[in-house]
Amino acid sequence: MTADKFKRKLVNLNVKRRLQLWLLIRIGGIIILTSIISALILYGYARHETIDTFYQAHIKIRRVSDLLLPVVLSGSAISLISGALLALFLPQKIAGPLYRIEQELNKVKAGDFRTKIRLRTKDTLVNFTSQINDTIATVDQRLSDMQKAMNSIDNIESLPQDTREKLDDVKRLLNDCKTTLNNH
């Protein structure tokens, strides 16, 4: 395999398209909502008539930034709050399924290859779990095939002594493979 085959693209929306779309919609929605709220705050401050108030209070405005400071602070506060909410709740949609996958994989690690990882249908990693389940099923099938081969070797008693010794060596190697697969 060449390095060109796996060249990294800056934006690749074809990889896990649904997950990327889900994240983009949520993050984009927060950005748009924050922009609208900031614009409404700016519009609310801009609508007030300030000329009479400034003449009555004898206040001299030195910079336009003095007028815009409350608007900027309000917009920043709204952005900060919405960003914090996004940072708090968005990872939950991914962390919950990852936690469940991890718990089920611990069962597989302990040797239970009949485990099926199940998530809610609306969870973001449902396709990933089906791939993991297929992999676990394949490993389970291969272990079953190895067990059948070992049982067939056990049933061969009528062979000459030297052949049985070689088969015992093969059986020992298969047991080592099985033990290695179960321990790792």
From TrEMBL:
Which superkingdom heads the taxonomic lineage of this protein's source? Bacteria
Alphabetically sorted, this entry's keywords are: Membrane, Transmembrane, Transmembrane helix
Q: Does the keyword Transmembrane helix apply?
A: yes
Residue intervals passing through the bilayer = 21-45, 67-90
Indicate what this protein is called per its UniProt record: HAMP domain-containing protein
The scientific name of the source species is Desulfuromonas acetoxidans (strain DSM 684 / 11070)
Organism lineage: Bacteria, Pseudomonadati, Thermodesulfobacteriota, Desulfuromonadia, Desulfuromonadales
